[in-house]
Amino acid sequence: MPKQPTIVLTRPAARQQGLIDSLASLSLPALVLPALSIEPLPSNALVRATSTNAVSNVEQSTNETATLITSASKPYDLIVFVSRAAVEHFPPKMCTNLSQTLFAAVGGQTAQAIRQRFGVTIDLLYPFASCQQDSEALWQLLMPHLSRIKRVLIVRAEWGREWLRERLLENGCEVDCLATYSRNPCMWSGEQAQALFDAWQNQIPLIWLFTSIESVDAVETQFKRFKVKAEHVIQGVVVTHPKVLSRVRLLLIEGNSSVTPTLGTHDETLFELVMPNDQDILAGIVKLSKNF
Q1: H or E stretch including 95?
Q2: By CB atoms within 10 Å of each CB, which of 9, 97, 178, 245 scores lowest?
Q3: Do 214 and 174 belong to one domain?
Q4: pTM of the prediction?
Q5: pLDDT in tens, 119-139
Q6: What is the 3-state secondary structure (H, E, C) of 117-151?
Q7: Which domain covers residue 219, as residue numbers?
Q8: CATH code at 222?
C-alpha cells in the first residue's frame, strides 16, 4: 500500500511557518531540517569592487581590486536587493536620498518586501512570475536603463551575485557591495538525523524542498556527518531553479561530483521545478505527493 510522503523543508527557520501551515491544512506532514541560518551581521561592511576580478567578500576587502569604504558619498542610481533578508537588514541610516534611485530584485518575493519597506511608488524592476527569476533575467531588464546607471549598490550576504556584479562593472558602473547578513550551515541535532533514519527504515517517501545551491551543499555536509546516503532519503525534490536541480542531481550520484548529471540520472527520483514563491512551491509539492 502506498505511503503518504513527508515533506522536508530546508529553508531558514524564519521562512518556514507559512508553508508548514499550508501543508498541515492538506494533511501533509512536514519535517523541518533547515539547511542554512540567516544572521544579521553586527556591523555592515561596504565593499567597492574596482574590476571584474574583484573578490568583494568582507573578509577579503583588503584585496587590491576591492576597497572597504565607510559610507556612500552620494546617492546610488541603482540598489539591487538579492533576497528578503537583504531588505530586512538594510541599515536605516542608508534609507535617505533614494527618491531618484532605481530599485531592483531578482524575484517577486524580494520585490514585495522592497515595496513594503520603501513604499509602493518607488521605481522597481524585477523578473515577473512567468520568467525565470535569477540574475540573468534581471540583467535583461536592467540593460535598457544602463545609460542612467553609474553608481550601484548590491545588498546581499557576505558573497553572492558575482555574475551580475561583473556585468555591471563591464558596463562602466561603479559597484559597491553591502553585506548585511550571513548565511551559515545549520548543524542538525541527533533527533533530526534520527527522523531521517526512521523515515528510511519505515519506507516513508521524503520530498525535499531546495531553494538554493548553498542549501544543497549544507545538506550534503550533514548527510556526510551522520552517514546518510542521499539516495536512501530523497525520493522527490522540489526546486526553484534549474541550477539547484543540477546540484541535487550531483548529490544523488553518490558524491561523484565529477560526473555530469543528465535528465536520465536517477529516474527513480521525482523532480518538480517551480517558481520561488510559496504558492507555486506548495503546488509543486502537492503534485509530487500524488505520485506516492
Answers
A1: none
A2: 97
A3: no
A4: 0.79
A5: 988 999 998 865 677 889 999
A6: HHCCCCEEECCCCCCCCCHHHHHHHHHHHHHHCCE
A7: 6-35+187-289
A8: 3.40.50.10090
